[in-house]
Write a structure and sequence with these properties.
The protein is built from 8 helices and 6 strands; from the N terminus they run H-E-H-E-H-E-H-E-H-H-E-H-H-E. The chain is an alpha/beta fold and 201 residues long. Helix 5 packs antiparallel against helix 8.
């Protein structure tokens, strides 16, 4: 919605969540939102209006939820016109050789937030290159992450006391996963990165 308000005239969104789609349609009635899986090329091409025609794409905290990041990048590449830009902003692994304690937090984060791809910057660049993208810019936004707000501390305490209880709900999973991600940031094991690519001509 933030992008839709600032990048006229035609912004099209793809989300797997009907709830999220309804929220966007309510806030921005003129925006077209497709409900579907971006791992399916037909969904991406339908949203883009065809193959090789889209002028740009944003993936904000979404690629991490892909089970097959390579396929998603290939689908987006198929939809973009040569020279078009792709912006990927996501939580990423600071490095591949994480400490075993960090790896345990990674698994908790992935389980809670249903994360399929927790990759390093280098891994993203390699996958994007294979899909037909050239790197333009990398910006480390980790310093802007709010970590340690009163609510974060409260959740941390609750998780320390109850985090291992066999509770299953979307709300609880969100709390568990978010707390684990905050731990990873505090330990320097996660980075919040923005990558800009251009579709190879």
């Amino acid at each position: 919605a933030h992008i839709g308000e600032r990048v006229p005239p035609a912004v099209v969104g793809v989300t797997i969540s009907p709830v999220q789609a309804a929220m966007i349609r309510e806030r921005l009635p003129s925006t077209t939102v497709h409900v579907g899986d971006f791992e399916e090329r037909s969904v991406v091409l339908e949203a883009a209006g065809g193959s090789g025609v889209a002028s740009g794409a944003y993936m904000i905290e979404s690629l991490c939820h892909a089970g097959d990041a390579e396929r998603v990048l290939e689908n987006v590449a198929a939809a973009l016109a040569p020279g078009a830009h792709l912006v990927v902003c996501d939580d990423m692994a600071a490095r591949r050789d994480l400490h075993k304690t960090d790896l345990a937090w990674v698994e908790t984060y992935r389980r809670g937030w249903h994360v399929g791809t927790f990759q390093t910057s280098a891994e993203l660049i390699g996958r994007a290159d294979a899909a037909g993208f050239d790197l333009v810019e990398i910006v480390d936004l980790t310093g802007y992450i709010a970590n340690g707000r009163p609510r974060d501390v409260a959740i941390r305490i609750v998780m320390a006391l109850c985090g291992r209880l066999p509770i299953r709900s979307a709300w609880w999973d969100n709390m568990v996963g978010g707390n684990a991600l905050q731990r990873l940031y505090r330990r320097g094991a996660a980075r919040y990165m923005l990558h800009t690519f251009t579709r190879r001509r």
